[in-house]
Amino acid sequence: MQCYDREAIMAAVTLDHEALAAVEAGFKALGRGEVIQPPILSMAIEESNGEVDVKTAHIRGAERFAIKVSPGFFDNPKIGLPSLNGLMMVFSAKTGLVDAILFDEGYLTLVRTALAGAIAAKHLSRESSCRVAVLGAGEQAERQVQALRLVRNIDTVDVWARRRQGAETYAERLRADGLRVNVHNEVAEACAAVDIIVTATPSRVPLLHARDLPTGVHVTAMGSDSPDKRELDATVLTCADAFVCDTRAQSEGNGELKAFEGGEVPFKVHELGRVIAERQRLRLTDDTLTVCDLTGTGVQDTAIANFALTRLVAG
């Protein structure tokens, strides 16, 4: 058994086309029904504003599977610590023996989440998309833009965050990467002229409404991953021409479909893996409005863990 730390993992795994292909293959396998994926094990630690998720999945025929433990303690920045941490345990799918411990401190989750956003945009946004609005200014908000540049020619970013200083600091980092960045005081202003909107916040109340959406925009919501989080108002979902999620069950329990809890969902729900596997064409014109809700799946973790370990062993 090998144990790899965050530094080694970061040297081996970046936001590149090979990593994107590995995560996309995981989604495709899920869409083909080739994945065993149990529900998320989740626990809240309310007195510390924390939560812990355990996710896993096995892709039939794969050499290994991963089990990820992912804590999020959101008051940590106040004491100089990161909000996210965790590790992945990688097991042989033939013997059940531990092949490796990836003590990535949440890095691989950041990577696979960003790549999932890019995969959603690849299949749902206009191919000509070049301008993105980002709600949020944390590390995942930055990674989402980096990953989007793998699939779309992004040149302009419009950012809104609850803290203006956080948005300004975020803008400086992206400008250093050669992007034009505009900081806005209102969500509606940030979204007014964009092709893609990414919500990357831990919000517990809806931030984005149908009135904020320009014609033909694609929305990726990736912040709602627990029962008490919401980023999208129900009007965003009901006005969409196509609504997609990673899994319907997770979206209903942890994601944006919670808006219809106890009632019937008044539109068709597509799952991203099937969209990819079946080559479904949901964007019919440039005016089609698409929404994708990503809650994070175990198959993404197994896919990125397998990819990471393959690179680490080869390197």
Automatic annotation (TrEMBL):
GO terms for cellular component: cytoplasm. InterPro entries: NAD(P)-bd_dom_sf (IPR036291), ODC_Mu_crystall (IPR003462), ODC_N (IPR023401). It comes from the Bacteria. NCBIfam families: PRK08291.1. This is Ornithine cyclodeaminase.
